[in-house]
Design brief:
With 150 residues, this protein is mainly α. The chain is 93% helix and 0% strand. The chain contains 2 helices and no strands.
Length: 150
């Protein structure tokens, strides 16, 4: 029983203690609660603003990563094109070398042709000269004396 009496006394003391809160103290607690709520709201707004900025930064980072990947792909494509162009240039240089060699051969053949043409022309001229005097002799003897020499 004694325990029961102590328990009721403790509850009564607590009840009277809560009932003893003065209006000034209650007003101060309400003001303090309101101040904490305002600070909480301000901190929440700041946190949301930071979250928005963080999301914007993450989006920018993702865009930059995508641009970098695109630039890297472009660089790889350019390097491949450079390798192909170098191979084409090398092939063209070889082809040009072959064409120059053939041009030299052609020039040599032209010179040979000119020389052979000159030789052929001189040979034909020489043959014509040999045949021509024998053909002209009868004409000259006929025209000169009027008598032909057999």
């Amino acid at each position: 029983m004694r325990f029961l009496w102590c328990a009721t006394a403790a509850v009564a003391w607590l009840a009277t203690g809560c009932a003893r809160i003065t209006p000034e103290r209650l007003e101060a607690q309400v003001q303090e609660t309101m101040r904490w709520q305002r600070e909480y709201q301000l901190e929440r707004e700041r946190s949301e603003a930071v979250a928005v900025r963080l999301a914007a930064l993450e989006a920018t980072i993702e865009r930059l990563v995508a641009e970098r990947a695109e630039v890297e792909q472009g660089r790889v494509a350019l390097l491949e094109e450079l390798v192909r162009t170098e191979a084409d240039r090398h092939a063209l240089e070889e082809h040009n070398t072959q064409l120059l060699a053939r041009e030299r051969e052609l020039n040599e053949l032209r010179e040979m042709h000119e020389q052979l043409s000159d030789v052929f022309y001189e040979s034909a001229l020489e043959r014509a000269r040999r045949r021509l005097p024998s053909a002209r002799q009868p004409d000259a003897s006929v025209a000169g004396d009027g008598t032909a020499v057999p």
